[in-house]
Sequence to fold (309 residues):
Amino acid sequence: MNSTITLDSKILIAGHNGMVGSACWRALKGKGYKSIIGFSSKELDLRDQRAVFKMLEKEKPEVIIDAAAKVGGIIANSTYPYEFLMDNMLIQNNLIKAAHELDIPKFIFLGSSCIYPKMAPQPLKEEYLLTGPLEETNKWYAIAKISGVKLIEALREQYNRDYVSLMPTNLYGPGDNYDLKTSHVLPAMLRKFHEAKESNNSNVVLWGTGSPRREFLHVDDLANAVVYALENKLDRSLYNIGSGEEVSIKELASLIKNIVGFKGEIIWDNSKPDGTPRKLLDSTKINRLGWNSRINLDYGVKKVYRSQF
Ligand SMILES: NC(=O)c1ccc[n+]([C@@H]2O[C@H](COP(=O)([O-])OP(=O)(O)OC[C@H]3O[C@@H](n4cnc5c(N)ncnc54)[C@H](OP(=O)(O)O)[C@@H]3O)[C@@H](O)[C@H]2O)c1
Fold:
């Protein structure tokens, strides 16, 4: 541990009720951190700059983990472009601005792999940021997160702040969102196959062609990466956090079909969008420092299915 942070340090987790925030809370508690705080969006709306400043002025945490955001799948992003851009900019900018002005020593900003250009070479390296056009279906959210990454970079360069951005790949795990209108592909599949099995349906209809390739990471692995970043002074401002394990949507569907035990057919609805053809992160930089994912997809999805359904 070459950081000033100790087990008594006060740590604020923004979005502590969310899938990522709650995983970070579990991981930190598990490591013996004693002073962890969080506020629900009902208790504190992070879009309110004055309220955020007042809370941080009062609480004076030594670390802020920003796991709060307006997140959602393809439908939500294309239905609410303004909110996905403005709300996410407000949430991150209010926290980053107040943290800097109140001289809070450590800040961990969480973004997502959709910040990288749609057609960038794969696997995606951190240096590919802003080298080409974004995936249209979630560009609003991506632009907000890119501005957060750049704020963190600017504060490191201009004020030598020990602030860092972590870009996780697609996440899954306890506390995921299973609402078919706003969820991501993996939880949506788990729910569809489970309900089809329970109702003895003869088939399940899935979006797209099944050919896109995706990388998934269990949220507990990500939480371990957040703890690693908290306990170490990292020498770069941006790190990809991925498992390096890539599957096609078709392979994911048959993995989940088998785990759930659904015996019927899979029908692919080609009229629905596929999204980016491939999205695999290059996580060499954080791997070289010593963090690697530990939960493989088969074991992770089985664990989630048993605990959530
Ligand atoms: N899910 C993924 O696959 C994925 C992949 C890569 C990166 N990430 C990143 O991980 C972070 C968290 O994602 P998640 O999956 O954990 O999302 P989530 O489960 O939806 O959690 C989002 C959290 O943000 C809080 N929040 C939202 N708007 C707020 C506001 N106006 N004021 C205060 N709190 C607010 C929510 O608070 P309440 O619960 O109190 O309402 C919730 O706890 C995001 O930065 C996202 O970019 C997620």
Remarks:
- The mean pLDDT is 96.
- The radius of gyration is 19 Å.
- The pocket of NAP is lined by residues 15, 17-21, 40-41, 45-47, 67-71, 91, 110-112, 168, 170-171, 184 (CB under 6 Å).
- Residues 81-101 form the longest helix (21 residues).
